Amino acid sequence: SGTTSFLKRARALLRIRNKLARECLAELLGVFVLILINLSSAAQMVTSFGKKGDIFSSYLAGALAIMVSVYMAVGVSGAHLNPAFSLTLCLLEQFPWWKLPIYVAVQVFGAFIASGAVYALYYDAIQHYSNGNLTVSGPRETASIFATYPADYLSISNGFLDQVMGTALLIAGILAMLDTRNKGVPKGLEPVAVALLVLAIELSMGSNCSCAINPARDFGPRLFTYVAGWGSEVFRWVEGRGRGGGWQ
Questions:
Q1: Alpha carbon distance, N-terminus to C-terminus of the chain
Q2: What is the CATH number of the domain that holds 214?
Q3: What is the pTM of this model?
Q4: Is residue 145 part of a domain?
Q5: Range of the domain at 161
Q6: pLDDT by residue (tens digit) across 134-150?
Q7: What would the pLDDT profile of 116-139 be if each residue is shown by its tens digit?
C-alpha cells in the first residue's frame, strides 16, 4: 500500500549507515536514560521532603536505570556509559584509543542534556522546595539532586579513595561477569547482574560521596547546574555544605 511504501522510504532515508555515528547515538541515548531516571529519583525524594522516596528508593532507581540503559545501548555501542569503563577497555586493548575522547564527550553531553530534562520536569518542585533560591549548601540546597557532594566530615584524600575504590569495584565486577573463563551470567541477563552490582556498591559505599562511580554522571550534571544558576560553588570543595553525601 501507499502507507507501507512511504514508511519504507522514510526508514531508508532516516537510517544512519555510519557505524561510529550509530555507536555515538546509542551511547548518548543510554547515558540520557541512565541520568534521567537517576536524577529524577533524587529530585522526587528531595523535593517531597522524603515523603515520596528515600535513600533506598533512590539507589534502587539508579540500579534499575543502569539495567534499562544497558539493554538500550549494548547491542550498538557496547553500553560503556562511563568514561572510566571506556578507559579500562582501552588499557586492556579491547577498545581503540582514538574512540575514547569521542565516547567520553558523548557520555558527558548525554548526562548534561538529561540534567536539563530533569530540571524541566521538576522545575516547579525545585522552585517550591528551594523558595526560588538555587543553592549548593544549606537546609534547602538542591545542587545534590544533580551532582554528588562530600559528607561534611570527609577529607579530600578520603574522598579520592572513596571514588577510586567504588569505581574499581564496579569495573572489576563487570569485567568478571564478561570473562568467558568464569561461570558466566546467563545470556541476556548481564544488564540485570550489572544493576545488582551497582545496587550493592551504592548500599555499601554511598555515604561518603554519594557514590558517583562515573565521571560523566557527575561532571555532566555538575556542569549543567553551573550554567543553570547554581553558580561556580558547584565546583568547589566546601566543608559544612549541609546534607553533603548520601542523597544519591
A1: 52
A2: 1.20.1080.10
A3: 0.90
A4: yes
A5: 18-235
A6: 999 888 999 999 999 88
A7: 999 999 999 999 999 999 999 888
